Amino acid sequence: MADDTFGRGKFPCLLILFQGLLLILFVVFVDYSKDVLPDAQNTLKINTDFPVFQDIHVLLLVGFGLLMTFLKKYGFSGLGYNFLICAVVMEWATLMQGFFEMENNKIQLDIDSMIKGDLAAVTILVSFGAVLGKTSSLQLLLMSFIEVIFYTINRTICTTYLQAVDPGGAVLVHAFGAYFGLTVARVLYNKNSVAHEKEASRYTSDLFATLGTIFLWVYWPSFNSILVQGVLRHRAVVNTYYAMAASCVTVFAFSSLVTKASKLSMVHIQNATLAGGVAVGTIASMIIHPWGAILLGMVGGIISTIGYKYIQPWLIRTLHIHDTCGVNSLHGMPGILAAIASIVSSGLAGFGQYKTSLYTVFPARSPVINSTQYLELVQFVPDARAGLGRTATEQAGYQCAALVMTLAVSSMGGLITGFIVKQSFFDPMTEDRMYDDLHYWEVCFYHFSIF
Amino acid sequence: MADDTFGRGKFPCLLILFQGLLLILFVVFVDYSKDVLPDAQNTLKINTDFPVFQDIHVLLLVGFGLLMTFLKKYGFSGLGYNFLICAVVMEWATLMQGFFEMENNKIQLDIDSMIKGDLAAVTILVSFGAVLGKTSSLQLLLMSFIEVIFYTINRTICTTYLQAVDPGGAVLVHAFGAYFGLTVARVLYNKNSVAHEKEASRYTSDLFATLGTIFLWVYWPSFNSILVQGVLRHRAVVNTYYAMAASCVTVFAFSSLVTKASKLSMVHIQNATLAGGVAVGTIASMIIHPWGAILLGMVGGIISTIGYKYIQPWLIRTLHIHDTCGVNSLHGMPGILAAIASIVSSGLAGFGQYKTSLYTVFPARSPVINSTQYLELVQFVPDARAGLGRTATEQAGYQCAALVMTLAVSSMGGLITGFIVKQSFFDPMTEDRMYDDLHYWEVCFYHFSIF
Amino acid sequence: MADDTFGRGKFPCLLILFQGLLLILFVVFVDYSKDVLPDAQNTLKINTDFPVFQDIHVLLLVGFGLLMTFLKKYGFSGLGYNFLICAVVMEWATLMQGFFEMENNKIQLDIDSMIKGDLAAVTILVSFGAVLGKTSSLQLLLMSFIEVIFYTINRTICTTYLQAVDPGGAVLVHAFGAYFGLTVARVLYNKNSVAHEKEASRYTSDLFATLGTIFLWVYWPSFNSILVQGVLRHRAVVNTYYAMAASCVTVFAFSSLVTKASKLSMVHIQNATLAGGVAVGTIASMIIHPWGAILLGMVGGIISTIGYKYIQPWLIRTLHIHDTCGVNSLHGMPGILAAIASIVSSGLAGFGQYKTSLYTVFPARSPVINSTQYLELVQFVPDARAGLGRTATEQAGYQCAALVMTLAVSSMGGLITGFIVKQSFFDPMTEDRMYDDLHYWEVCFYHFSIF
């Protein structure tokens, strides 16, 4: 018991050390970008992007936070750890991603850094879903720390080197987070954590979680369009809106089809309804026509519902992957679907349809040009940049490569992370403490004691 | 029992068939508008309208959704069916309204379609409130399907042919939804559904519902201003803000006045506080002066509180209209008040006060002009269009006509719909299943079963 | 009992009288500003400021509202009175502040009035937190009425006469509200209200309150940046984002450090995590570098956690100040910290770093100029105004003066208010009614009774 108290003192001490380290790193490496300083050139960005950013900020903290409260005795932890992970990752991912993009030896902060910080946080929250209720706060902290590193490396490879496109992060965020989390869950597998008596919801916790779902669903168009601008944002918003609608309708139907007595299952409604947003994420800004968005939303919803009903139990029985929130069904498989859709859609994308926006949607398809050609081109395409001159098929290949890379890096990263956090130093959880706030939170206390 | 299971299998089957039909209709009839395609002219719309759209999207899904959870055992259904209705209507109303506005044989999708889809969804949600807890999911689905058709027809008549103005949809959305729902409720009247033991709230369900109210209240300025731009939006926002404030204060006072022991009644706080937003809806963008907005907010709040206290029980006793959420008091009567206010306000509107904005606020009052006159006019009013040259009095008359039309179409539509959904094929509810999630949702389940 | 009923009838009667008075005052003194009328010059303001306004509107109504629901039996009152106070103050503060800024004998309404109304409401909500559960609705109403007057006077002195800057309102809103509320609480002190058996949370009420915290946390960047534009807004957003993150992480660590068995305390997570937003409020738009924001966030979080753990109980024991929500720890001390930071930061601010934005951030530092000089200057600084030609040190002094003034006015105002509301006419609460909805709300009622 004395040991236990000592052991648990590790969490606050390491956390405050980490925050201190972050402060030092910010002092040394970070400053404002020129858009946040006097004489900024781009003064409109804050007006056009901040409202959309705030939407995804709510999506993260409120949407994911509430979704994590579905367990009957684990609401404080679900909402609270979600909060902590967001805050930690917002700072840490700013640094990690900044290291790859320094100018004048400084990481340049502006609203783009905040957007990147939030997207990284989503990734870690997805992984958190896979291990919800089965890890100590120390394990979660360490997992967040390591995952951000892998996430940043993978994101940099896929976007900077492979030049794959993924505005809604279906692959780089959702699939990455899902398969990272699943591998961690595999390593931490404990058969007593499965069908645990506390791994259940109650009426009120299900209401809170469904409210979280609805916040996620409502703000998903902002999520899928935050990284693009103008017409591309408009298209991403429209595609996502209709994909979400189709996904929701389809999941209500399939949930009723596969559930006893044709009832609706709260698990499906809380989760699978969102799969359409993931499924359309990678191609949200492409010209897929509204029916393409609806079709993807439907397929995403079906896959996800089937995932919850049949594949999730199968993963436990067969592969010993116990995925508490079912992130494979909500983020993993729909993310792969999104990647496949992007391979098809990129392979079909031509100048006839996209006109000069082809080079905005797929920067790597911009022609390889010399400076004379550039001066000519820039007359027609103001933001033209010399590209790699890729063909549609090549771009499709790179989209495929990004998927493979993401699956490899996330599984490998999750495996390594799992083995590290499993060490007894990081307080792995015993079964009697799982899915229960009691051991980590002051529950039902008097507001304060004064004597 | 076998029959029952078969009967309930109808819901998912019809729902998936409907979603399949929607997909086919989208393939055949729907494409992007040119603002979502390369070479879009209007690239600013997404920046100015998307944040306001997201506000009303939250209002719909979160605000209405939570408001519907006030019943102690019907929270899953309230929140869940609200979600499903939104998604179904978003797709279906896009088609229905699009059919009236096709260009090049295609319905043109952009953010305006999303706004229209959401406004249609609000209408159906209002009607849903009148029958909450007393209809099967199949009946709800059918009601949504039919109501969208009537709503679209009425909207088209009132705005395109009558050229009545109603930026906040107090008549076309709220009053329409209310009287459609009330008529359906009348046809489905079952005396055992009244004062049913489960038609009650509990502490937590009332908290959820009040939270919904607050989301509705907060985002109402966006709702009343989404259809107008620039200065008109500014005015609509200011008017709505002060009307909402006055409505809230007035309802707290009147609730305490009419409630036993001067207590506050949660029903009033949850509902009547919003009446000011409806009451000011039709004239939100008119020059009614801030005190006009406050006066309307007060009158709306009083009418609505009295409605909940006295008229709602009277409707049940006398007309056998059992209106679960009291939509007559929240949406119906304040909507009629808004129409009356718009008749007065339109009748007083003159060029002296509105200057050239007269033709933006009331397009039908634009002069009938020939092309030479147009070229002159357009120098002063850049977006001038040839109008109908209506006088103030004529416009007032058409505002009145729109109210009458709306009341007629909604009651007629509700009557027809009521008789259709009452058929046994659509699984009318028996009393033992009313106001209870148990029969339609997996309640308090273990998260999943694996063996 | 008859007396009691009569006594309680005072609340609705006075409230409706007050709303009537507001209506008359609006008729006489209030009209639209020219930006809400035809021929408005500034048509962009609604597009750039309205989304940010809606964020703070949610922060007020939803964030504060839910935070006030943490008491197990006082959720209706927490959420409901928060709602009422907002609405009352929105109208009343519009008038009070308008009286100081009339043009052509009219108060000019536009979105700026709404922003000012909301900021005033936050101030009163902070004070409400100090007396939560211990005042009658009549006392609350009167407190709101009086506090708005003191708030407006203090704000006018500090910004117009002292020309101190405080974009996030850490001093003028948070510190003012806190010390006003604390003084009121001191005057109303009743030893039986302390450690009252109902002054406790329960599982669900803590979830609701934490959700409120998260809404506050998410929208705080909007709150700190609503009063500034362009680059200044961008900087305020970035600074606040990182300060909030650092604050959250630090509080999780310190909460675990100071709580028994290294558990996390819900009180700290619900409140102290927000202190970083207050601490950075006054200097949010200054060039403090990202590490400055993080440092302030950390210090704010530490001070606040220590405040909840040690200072709040000490205040009760020693000074008999019973502060229900701990507003001294969340708003008071972090507000003072913000003021100190602003003294330092203003004292260091120079033209080299701020360039011409120096005069936007600190208007009083603009040079004293004659009209010829003005014509020259305006070529480089389009919105140049003749200022007071203050030095950095002088500005620092005025920042200090604003803090002292705020502490003086708020304490004095609170003292006076406390003695007034303590009078028996305003229904002071007896212990048996404290922290309990039962006596003021219809609780767990049937939805309505018809016979």
From TrEMBL, chains A, B, C:
Entry keyword Magnesium: no
Localization in the cell: Membrane
GO MF, one example: ammonium channel activity
Entry GO terms, CC: plasma membrane
GO biological process: ammonium homeostasis; ammonium transmembrane transport
Protein topology in the membrane: Multi-pass membrane protein
Claim: Transmembrane helix is one of the keywords in the record: yes
Major subcellular location class: membrane
Record keywords, A-Z: Membrane, Transmembrane, Transmembrane helix
Residue ranges crossing the lipid bilayer per the database entry: 12-32, 52-71, 78-95, 168-189, 201-220, 240-259, 271-288, 294-311, 332-354, 396-421
InterPro entries the UniProt entry points to: Ammonium/urea_transptr, NH4_transpt_AmtB-like_dom, RhesusRHD
Residue ranges annotated for the Ammonium transporter AmtB-like domain, each copy included: 37-423
Family membership noted in the UniProt record: Belongs to the ammonium transporter (TC 2.A.49) family. Rh subfamily.
Protein name: Ammonia transporter
Organism name: Nematostella vectensis (Starlet sea anemone)
